[in-house]
Amino acid sequence: MKNNFKKFFIFSFVIFFLSIFTLALKKDNNYSTKNLIGNQISSFQLPSLRNSSFITDKELKQNQFTLINFFASWCAPCRIEHKYLVRLNDQNKNIKILGVNFKDKKNNALNFLNDLGDPYSFVAKDPDGKASILFGIYGIPESIIINKELEIIKKIVGPIDQKDYEEILRLIK
Amino acid sequence: MMLKKIIFFIFLSSSIHASEVNLELIEIYKNIRCLICQGQSIADSNSDFASTVKLVVQDQLKDGKTKKEIYDFLISKYGEWIVYQPTLNKNNFLLWFLPYLILVFGALIIFFILKKTKDSKDN
Q1: Do A135 and B77 touch (CB under 8 A)?
Q2: Domain boundaries, position A105
Q3: Who among A35, A128, A139 is closest to B49 (CB)?
Q4: Distance between A90 CA and the closest CA of chain B, angstroms
Q5: What is the Cα–Cα distance from B78 to A50, expressed in whole angstroms?
Q6: Considering the entire predicted model, what is its pTM?
Q7: Of A154, A167, A84, which is closest to residue A119 (Cα–Cα)?
Q8: What is the CATH number of the domain that holds A116?
Q9: Looking at the complex, does the CB of residue B36 fall below 8 Å from at least one CB of chain A?
Q10: How many domains, in total, are found in chain A?
Q11: Residue A77's pLDDT is what?
Q12: Does B16 have pLDDT greater than 60?
């Protein structure tokens, strides 16, 4: 009886640790902030890339949905995703796109928009990257879709692709 | 001469204050994970992300924010993964208490073994 209990105890102990290791191995180790949805974005005031005007969070409350896209002319994946942003802006009236030009030179950014098209309702600048921390950005391109209440409904880390584009359409229907 | 002494003490006190601020900054940097690096804190990293977070932390300290407020701000933006020292919650309470439970359990086992040995010796 005592021996059986000992065996059972050792067996349970081994199973317990094996299950922990198996679960740990299955877990995705690449951390991403894309699951942090439902949070409200912080208040902000960002200067325009083109002139001396500003945009604040209050203005985004007027939009049904807003996609905040962090981009730079030096970022190759930003060029790849840009066509989806242009298409999104052309074909959908219930979403506005706010571009935030990240650690870039003004001329390069303007050339980028001239070459590939300008889907943004406002292009803000973030020359030292500090504003990106306010939005929980850790690399570009990154996009955040918010609703009228300024709640994050989706975060896209990396370039937007066809699959993301279709999901955005589904979300803003 | 007196004026020189006064200037010296003002300089000394300001440099002591500066080093205290630096120590606090380094302590905060060491507890913030660089999300794009492999197992490094922002104190150890020169990546773009780490240098931007450092700037934000410096600004917030200058604004009089406490360490906890800075961590809470970063957690609200990046999740709890951003800090090395996690707060106690329902998902990690085992991680906090299991070592103490094992310690107590181990002590009990040793106690009973010793008691048993003593009893058998007495008999």
Answers
A1: yes
A2: 33-171
A3: A139
A4: 31
A5: 30
A6: 0.77
A7: A84
A8: 3.40.30.10
A9: yes
A10: 1
A11: 96
A12: no
